[in-house]
Amino acid sequence: MNTHQPVNIVMIEDDEGHARLIEKNIRRAGISNDIRHFTDGTSALHYLYHSPDGPALNGPALILLDLNLPDMSGTDILIRIKADDSPLRRTPVIVLTTTDDKVEIQRCYDLGANVYITKPVDYESFATAIRQLGLFLSVIQVPVIEPDA
């Protein structure tokens, strides 16, 4: 059985214009992985944790997270993803948001965000962050979990 699985990129971003720019720049950085786009936290969390092809049940992901969503705070999503009992706690999270408040930035890092990028995104920084995670995206090995005997 092949344990190498492609990483799904999960983008949680309610602004369609920002979402298109982010995707364009992911492609420009040479990343061809699938991107699943959600415009609200509720549907994103459902996909992450409950969908048969979602990361909690079906392998690795990279999460691009906006903090300002229509139905909940991205910070709440970050807390849930990084909780000790979460199957996604090791999933890299890039926060992409308009908030450049130093307290908010520090809070996101304290909660487990890997990268914090302020919109409008400096796309060189974004491309660099994506490329640094590109190694993760291209070579991640998912351990095969044997069912209990």
Can you lay out the helices and strands and say which pair or pack?
Elements: E1 8-12, H1 16-28, E2 35-38, H2 41-50, H3 55-58, E3 61-65, H4 74-82, E4 93-97, H5 102-111, E5 115-118, H6 123-139
Parallel strand pairs: 1-2, 1-3, 3-4, 4-5
Could you state the order of secondary-structure elements as H and E?
EHEHHEHEHEH
Overall radius of gyration: 15 Å
- Residues in β-strands, percent: 15-25%
- How many strand units? 5
How many domains? The number is 1
Overall residue-averaged pLDDT value: 83
Which strand order do you get reading across the main beta sheet? 2-1-3-4-5
| Shape annotation | globular
Detailed description of the structure:
It is a single chain. The protein is of the alpha/beta class. It has a single domain, classed as Response regulator (Rossmann fold). 42% of the residues lie in helices and 15% in strands. The protein is built from 6 helices and 5 strands; from the N terminus they run βαβααβαβαβα. The protein has a 5-stranded parallel beta sheet with strand order 2-1-3-4-5, with helices on both faces.
Notable features of this structure?
Rossmann fold; disordered C terminus; 42% helix; 149 residues
Report a brief summary of the structure.
This protein has 149 residues and is α/β, with parallel strands linked by helices. It has six helices and five strands; from the N terminus they run βαβααβαβαβα.
